[in-house]
Write a structure and sequence with these properties.
With about 475 residues, this protein is an all-alpha fold. About 80% of the residues lie in helices and about 0% in strands.
């Protein structure tokens, strides 16, 4: 009886969500038809961002109902909604799809350039004229505000996401995971990178060297959260296999971020110079080491100054300020902001807030307080990434072949990383556990697109790799673990 009630409730909830989605679509259409009806200039931004968040909620609900990771639901609903809305002529959706290019154009325009020429040069096809028409129309300013706000919120979401990843990483455990995890992580980053670069050159010889480097780096990413959920379902979260995979994932994150810093430095500098590469790697290591060494002393001093605040206030203010300052310092050092966010998570722990009593007795942890921000902002990032996937790019056979090549490189590289584990280990399961790209692969793709080295077709190909590897891993991992048991 209870199962029947749950099925009915889910059906009703899905119907309600569908109706509300229709309401938001109608509201957006009405906003386009009568943009001057808003007396408050922020009202269109509220409507646009809330509508996008609701689309993310619908995707998350659908994924959970199908037993899939939330990120896939949010990404897929973004792809569907973005391409449908673009097909039916929603002007706002075009700006969201072309966001990074348009923001670069506005920046160039502010430096004494002609807006029309810059738009058409940035978007070389008919989209340039269409964007110019939208920006010059009566609703252009409102749409630009919405697109820019969504972009900023999504970037904040990525920062908080990496902060939470770092928060869940225990440095002491990293020192104890041993040789297996380190070798698995090294192979799992290096081999997909090499295979990705090779596949890019074989299937798209016209692609620049910088683009090939970035595509290879994106394939080295791993999202282990999906694997953890499978291990918990099979009651193996405390097994030696789980510890090997989790330890490898930690090292994978750090090696991947170092690779990202190196590749980004090469792209920005415009060439490969061993001195410059060594400088970037050294700078990243100094940033990580300096932050880990000096961070606790700075944190204790700041927390001591905030003793008059409530515990929740102190944890929120310190956490927010610390992650933002480190993200800014990372960018100032020539690294990605997410490296600073991840480092902040590595350093900041509840145990520093001793003035309010033992942290085990605190009503709320740092994770509990930051999680609401992550829950709201991260789905916006995933939906926006889905919106920017242009399905029309797959009409080009060369794009399809390159996507297939990258997918093969992504799968083969991660499966082979299981060879880094010692004999007697379930190497097949370890490789499958490292297979999902998830949110980390999307972040790499987004950074590449922002730097201008990953175009629309390549971005869509990387998103396809993320979706397929994330879908393949859970069922295959379950089969590998059951066969072994």
């Amino acid at each position: 009886m209870r199962d029947r009630w749950l099925r009915v409730s889910k059906t009703r909830l899905l119907a309600i969500l569908t109706v509300l989605l229709g309401f938001f679509a109608a509201a957006l259409a009405a906003a386009e038809a009568a943009p001057q009806a808003h007396s408050d200039p922020i009202a269109p931004v509220i409507l646009g961002v809330t509508g996008l968040l609701f689309v993310a909620l619908l995707g998350r609900f659908s994924a959970r109902k199908l037993g899939l990771p939330s990120v896939l639901g949010e990404l897929t609903i973004g792809i569907i909604a973005g391409n449908l809305a673009y097909t039916y002529g929603f002007d706002l959706m075009l700006l969201l799809r072309e966001g990074p290019h348009i923001f670069d154009t506005i920046q160039q325009f502010l430096h004494d350039a002609t807006l029309g020429n810059e738009v058409c040069n940035t978007l070389v096809d008919a989209r340039g004229r269409q964007v110019l028409s939208i920006l010059g129309g009566p609703s252009g300013n409102e749409y630009l505000q919405i697109a820019h706000t969504v972009d900023v919120f999504s970037r904040y979401g990525v920062i908080f996401l990496l902060f939470l990843v770092g928060l869940e990483t225990n440095i002491e455990e990293m020192r104890q995971v041993g040789r297996d995890s380190l070798m698995v992580a090294f192979i799992g980053v290096a081999l997909p990178f090499l295979l990705g670069v090779a596949a890019t050159y074989l299937l798209a010889s016209q692609v620049s060297f910088h683009t090939a480097l970035f595509l290879g780096a994106a394939l080295g990413a791993t999202s282990v959260g999906i694997t953890v959920r499978v291990l918990e379902d099979l009651q193996q979260s405390q097994s030696r296999l789980a510890h090997t995979i989790l330890g490898a994932a930690v090292f994978d994150d750090i090696l991947g971020l170092l690779m990202l810093a190196t590749v980004t430095g090469i792209v920005v500098s415009g060439g490969i110079e061993m001195g410059h590469i060594a400088k970037v790697v050294l700078l990243a290591l100094l940033f990580l080491g300096g932050a880990v060494f000096l961070g606790p002393f700075i944190l204790r001093f700041i927390i001591r100054l905030m003793r008059q605040l409530d515990l929740i206030e102190a944890k929120m203010f310190v956490s927010y300020l610390f992650v933002m300052v480190l993200a800014w310092l990372a960018n100032l050092s020539g690294l990605a902001t997410i490296i600073g966010a991840f480092t902040a998570g590595l350093i900041l722990k509840d145990a520093y807030f001793v003035h309010w009593g033992p942290h085990e007795k605190h009503a709320y942890s740092i994770r509990d307080l930051i999680m609401p921000l992550e829950v709201i902002l991260v789905p916006i990032f995933f939906v926006l990434m889905g919106i920017q996937v242009k399905l029309e790019t797959f009409l080009d056979w060369q794009v399809v072949s390159l996507a297939a090549g990258l997918l093969v490189a992504a799968i083969a590289g991660k499966l082979a990383c299981g060879l880094g584990a010692s004999r007697g280990s379930n190497r097949w399961a370890i490789g499958l556990g490292m297979l999902p790209r998830g949110e980390v692969g999307l972040i790499f793709a987004a950074i590449g697109k922002g730097l201008g080295v990953v175009d629309d077709a390549l971005f869509s190909s990387l998103v396809l790799v993320v979706i397929i590897t994330t879908l393949l891993s859970p069922p295959l991992l379950k089969i590998a673990l059951k066969d072994k048991t």
